[in-house]
Automatic annotation (TrEMBL):
SUPFAM superfamilies: CI-2 family of serine protease inhibitors (SSF54654). Belongs to the protease inhibitor I13 (potato type I serine protease inhibitor) family. This is Uncharacterized protein. One of its GO terms (molecular function) is serine-type endopeptidase inhibitor activity. InterPro entries: Prot_inh_pot1, Prot_inh_pot1_sf. It comes from Blastocystis hominis. The keyword Ubl conjugation does not apply.
Length: 103
């Protein structure tokens, strides 16, 4: 079951895209002191649980923020940052492997 977040709860930090991870962590912690902040690489495995008490920062290989969001682990990484390698559907589950582009 999904719980809708309160209307005033910040869910995404697009303004942090391209910033240093530690700088982003400080901004999020100041705005939301009660959240757990988790930093992951773009291709790191992550659970798919919906947690409003967690903010995930997805970083690139230069330790720069690609995205930061609350709730689901993936929501809006620009697809231009990735190369699609494998995509297949097994019954009702889609499985895709994406890697950061080297451009």
């Amino acid at each position: 079951m999904f719980v809708n977040p309160p209307d005033d709860m910040k869910m995404h930090w697009p303004e942090l895209q391209g910033k240093d991870v530690e700088e982003a962590r400080k901004v999020i912690q100041e705005e939301c002191p009660d959240v757990h902040i988790q930093v992951l690489g773009a291709t790191s495995p992550a659970t798919m649980d919906y947690r409003l008490d967690r903010v995930r920062i997805i970083k690139d290989e230069n330790n720069k923020v690609m995205m930061a969001n609350r709730g689901f682990p993936v929501c809006s990484i620009p697809l231009s940052n990735f190369n699609l390698l494998v995509c297949s559907t097994v019954t009702t589950v889609s499985i895709c492997l994406i890697l950061p582009s080297k451009t």
